[in-house]
Structures are given as structure tokens and as C-alpha cells.
């Protein structure tokens, strides 16, 4: 998991996620051409907002915490660049599952 | 039902489902060509999230539990690959029925 | 009403319905060609889910019960096949009316 | 108002309505060709459901009752055939007005 | 304001409105050709429903009453013909403003 | 701010606004051709409705009052003509900001 | 952060934001052609509205305050010009994250 040069605090029920990069070499050390690299739908939670704010102003904390490995939806999320790396901001409820 | 190498915990009201594969041989052992295999809308529940989180932050557990045989809608669900097998994540309310 | 080989328990506010088949012979026993058979918007309720789950987690039972004859909307519903027969799953609120 | 051979009980907040047929003769008894007959947006309420079911499961009875003459919207409603006559099922809130 | 031959009771939060007709003569009595007549977005409230029915079944009476002069939106409303005159049914909340 | 010949009372959470006209002369008195005049997204509040009516029938007064200078969205609002001048009716929540 | 000649008070849950301008020179002082300047999705909060007004009329203050550095979505927001500079008005919930 990357160590960012600045602290990102997602707003409300948002989570900052980094998609796990597809494998670039085979087990035996041969480079896989970029087109043949399989896109992964797994990522790590880098930061979590304070939670969902209800109509009554109550805050419901996320099920997720920093460091969680998660299953990401194929589409969606807002791409942002921090320290020249690609991250995604999702709403907590868009994350499909945790991987233990 | 498959034994996964990692534990998948669906988020909130989501359920992890595996569609039952269409029959590949006839009763008498003759292979059915792939095009003639009938797609099935039945599956098994592999894992269940903690439940629907209401506006008040209350959790309503799903009617479904691991191992349930279910009727799946023709469309929808998020396809995910775990251990090189295809699974689907549905919201609990998208599942059509349980089969006892 | 058909006797199914397996028990189907519709999820939540869903109902399992079988559309009544159009008449295939006239009163005097003459077969009606398939194209001239009039599609019917009537059906029988085969199974009923436990009911609508409200935002507060309360369950509101359906007005419908197994065996009810109902008026079906022209479109909608999820087609499912059980024992090689066609059935439809509707949300309780999509059913137009009961026929007594 | 027609006397139906079967009792239709509309579901929830639905009402069964029959559109008033356009005049087929002039006052002096001359037949009006079908194309020149003016479509009417008036109808009679034939049957009324038990009412709107709220999120809390409370039932709010309709303003309408059997026999009411009503103004119908130009579009919408589900057409159904009972005893070979055309009827319409509307949600209570789609009816525009009562005519006293 | 027209005197109708029948009483129209709008359903719920609906109001029956008659659009004010564009001027057909100039101040000096010259007829304005129909194409040059300016469409007006003003009307009179002819009848008012009992009010908005809330989720709890409470009725919130309209701000409007019979005889009010109102500003109408450019689009929307359901056109109905009563006594061969054109009227419009709007939901209370679609009316833009009262003119005192 | 214009003095209207009639009182306009916006319905509910609506506000009557007049867009500030673009400058027609330069500081030195030279006329700017109409095409070069810059459209302004500022306006004055001419009249304010009684407020938002909640699901419970409670009225929440607007933050805005007559005479407020406001930032208007680029699109939206219902154009109305009063005393041959152009005005706009917006819902209170569509106004972007107050300018003090 | 700019010092505006007039005070802008965003309505309700809106925030006034200024996008950080892309770098126009390299570290060594060479001008970057406008096309090569990278658009930034970071900005500063210039002003914050009083907060979200709930259905019950309660005000929920924003997580954001004047001076906060924020991550902005790629699209959305209403562009406004104040003192000949470009600003954006966003709803509080559209802001992706704070940068500390």
C-alpha cells in the first residue's frame, strides 16, 4: 500500500481506493505484454470518510477501514491522481465485497 | 458448492452467488454442444453481507444464508472472478426466490 | 394449478404466478390455430413471499395468497422455468387486481 | 354501468374504470361515422382497491367509490378485458377529478 | 370566470384552471389576426382538490382557492374539455405564483 | 429594482427574480453592440414564496428575502412576463448564492 | 486564495470553490504551452453555505470550511465569474475529499 505525501480525507461516505495493478511478468520472470495483462477488480482501501450522513444528520460509519482488500465494481468511481499515482474515490456502498 | 481460497464478505445487502452450470452431457453420457446447453437461472448463495443498512443506521439481515439455492434474474449482478471461477454479486432484493 | 416438484419461496414482496393458457379448441371442439389464440392477462398465484420489508425492517404481508386468480399487467415480471413450465415472478404491487 | 359476471378487486390504490363510449348517433338519430366520434375522457369507477399502503403499512382509503364519474388522463392505465368489454386500471392518484 | 354545468372536484392536490384567452382586438377595436395574438401564461383557478395527501395520510390544503388569478407554467397540465371549453388540471405545486 | 403594477406571490419555495441586464455602454459612453454585451448571472429577488412545505406540512422559510442580490444558474427557471418585463421564477434551492 | 471585492454566500449546502490553475512554467522557468498544461482537480474552498436543510428543516453544517484544499470531481459544478475570475459552486456532497 502506498505512503502518500499528503493526507486525503474522503468526504462523507467516500473511500479512497487503489486498484491492484495487473501482473507484468509471469512466474518465471517473462514480461507480459501490456495488452495481455488481465485487469483486476481488486484494490486496497487507502482512506475512509467519516461515514454516511443520514437525513437526521446522524453519521453511520463505513464497514471498511484503511488497509482492507476489496472487490471493486467494473465501472464507476472518480479517478484522481495523487503523487503521480492513480486512485479511485468510491461511495462506500459501491464497493462489492471485502476479501479477508 | 465451491470452497474458496479466500473469504469474500459481501458489502451490506449484497450476496455472492454462483450460477449453476448448464448440463454438458445428456443422461446417457453424450456431450451436448455448448450452443445447445441451456443457460440456467439457478444458483447457490456462497456468502451473504451483514444486511441492508436503513436510513437510521439499523441493519436488516437478509432472508438468505450461505448454501441457499436461488432463482436468479436474467440480467444484472456484478460478475467477479475468484480462484478463476465466475461469481456474481447481487443485492439481496434482486434475487427472485429461494428453492427448497 | 400445477403441483411443483420443488418448493419456490419468492423473495420479499414477490409472487410466483402462472399465466392461464389461451384456449386451444372452440366450445364445439375445433382446434384454434396458435396465431388466433387470444393471449390472456389472467393467472394463478402459485406462491407468495413473506411481504414488503419497510425502511424500518417491518414486514407488510401481501394482499395475495396461494391460489388467488389475478389480473396481470401486459408487460413486466421475470420469466422463470420450473419443471419445464413457464412461470412469472412479479412484485406484489405490479399485480393489477384479484378476480373473485 | 356494467354488471360484471365476476368480481374484480383492484390491488392496493388501483381503481377499475370504464371509459364512457363516444356518441354514435346525433340527437336527431343519424349515425356518426366512427372516425368522427369524439373520444371522451370521462369514465365510471367500477371497483376500488383497499387503498394506498404507506411505508408504515397503514392503509389510506381512496377518495373514490364505486359509481363515481371521473375525468381520466389522456394516457396511461392498464387496459384489461372482462366479459369482452374494455376496462382500465388506474392508480387512484392518476385520476384527474370527480364529476358531480 | 365560467359557470360550469357540472361540478368538477379535482383529485388530491390538483387544481382546475382556465387559461386567460389572448386579446382578440386592439384597444381601438381592430381585430388582431389569430397568429399575432400573444399566448398568456395567466389563468383563473376554477376548482381546488382537498389537498396533498402525505405518506402518513395527513391532508395539506392548497395555498390556492377558487377565483385566484395565477401564473401558469409554459408546459404541463392535463387538458380537459368541459361544456365545450378548454380547461387544465395542474398539480398545486406546478402553479408558479398567485397574482393579487 | 422594478415597481410592479401587480403583486406576484410565488407559490411555495419559489422566488421571483429579475436578471440584471448586461451593460449597454462602455464607461466612456460608447454603445456596446448587443452581441458583445456579456450575459450576467446576477439578479435581484423581487418576491419570495412562503417556503418549502415538508412531507409533514411544516413550512421552512427561504434564506432569501425581497431585494437580495443573487447568483443565478446558467439554465433553468420559468420565464414570465409582467408589465412587459422579463422575470424568472426559480425554486429557492436552485439559486446558487447571495451576493452581499 | 483570492480576496473578493464582494462577499458571496452560497445557498444551503453549496460551497464556492476555485480550481487551482495548472502550472504555467517549468521549475527552470520555461513557459509550458497552454495545451501541455495539465488540468488539476484540486481547489480551495472560498465560501461555505449554512448547510444541508433536512426534510424536517434542521440544518446540517458542512464538513468543509473556508480555506480547505479539496479534490474536485472531473465534471459538474456551476461556473460563475466574480471580479473577472472563474469560480465553481458545488453541492457539499459533490466534493470528493479534503487534502490536509
Which SSEs are present, and which pair or pack?
The structure is a homoheptamer of 100-residue chains.
Chain A: E1 8-10, E2 14-19, E3 42-48, E4 52-53, E5 59-60, E6 69-71, E7 78-82, E8 85-91, E9 97-99
Antiparallel strand pairs in A: 2-3, 2-8, 3-6, 4-5, 6-9, 7-8
What does this protein structure show overall?
The structure is a homoheptamer of 100-residue chains. With 100 residues, the first copy, chain A, is an all-beta fold. Chain A is 0% helix and 38% strand. Chain A contains no helices and nine strands. Chain A has strands spanning 8-10, 14-19, 42-48, 52-53, 59-60, 69-71, 78-82, 85-91, 97-99. In chain A, the strands form two sheets. A six-stranded antiparallel sheet of chain A has the order 7-8-2-3-6-9, with no helix packed on it. The first copy, chain A, has a two-stranded antiparallel sheet with strand order 4-5. Chain A is elongated. Chain A starts with 7 loop residues before the first strand and ends with a strand. The mean pLDDT of chain A is 89. Chains in contact: A-B, A-G, B-C, C-D, D-E, E-F, F-G. The A-B interface holds A 41, 52, 54-56, 58, 60, 63-64, 71, 73-74, 92-93, 95-100 and B 6-12, 14, 16, 47, 49-50, 53, 55-57, 78-81, 89. Chains A, B, C, D, E, F, G: GO terms for molecular function: ATP binding; metal ion binding; protein folding chaperone; protein-folding chaperone binding; unfolded protein binding. Chains A, B, C, D, E, F, G: Pfam families: Cpn10. Chains A, B, C, D, E, F, G: It comes from Mortierella alpina. Chains A, B, C, D, E, F, G: Eukaryotic CPN10 homolog which is essential for mitochondrial protein biogenesis, together with CPN60. Binds to CPN60 in the presence of Mg-ATP and suppresses the ATPase activity of the latter. Chains A, B, C, D, E, F, G: Belongs to the GroES chaperonin family.
